[in-house]
Design a protein that fits this description.
mainly alpha; about 65% helix; elongated
Length: about 100
């Protein structure tokens, strides 16, 4: 995914890490991670498929590719927020136990 840097919203410092581990931030980070994982699964499925393109469109131009990439990112984000593969819940539980 080319847009990983857009998901990064803050800076990491060890001194402030403890105070920034609120349940909402942990869940948000876990959802972002799950969205990245789902996005990679979608991208891999598209790239390993037939030469007719994603959903049989046959579009190989740059504009079509960009549109498909954006649609996959949005789908992955919505899936992660809706429960996705269940990674958000597992990650959140693991991180909340440590904080």
């Amino acid at each position: 995914m080319n847009n990983i840097s857009s998901l990064y919203t803050g800076s990491w410092t060890g001194a402030t890490a403890k105070s920034s581990n609120s349940p909402d931030k942990i869940k948000g980070a876990a959802e972002q991670f799950e969205a990245l994982m789902i996005g990679q699964l979608l991208k891999t499925a598209r790239e390993s498929g037939s030469s007719s393109g994603w959903m049989g469109t046959g579009q190989e131009d740059e504009a079509g590719q960009t549109s498909i990439d954006m649609a996959e990112q949005q789908l992955a984000s919505v899936m992660a927020k809706s429960g996705g593969l269940g990674l958000t819940k597992v990650i959140t539980q693991g991180l909340e136990k440590k904080s």
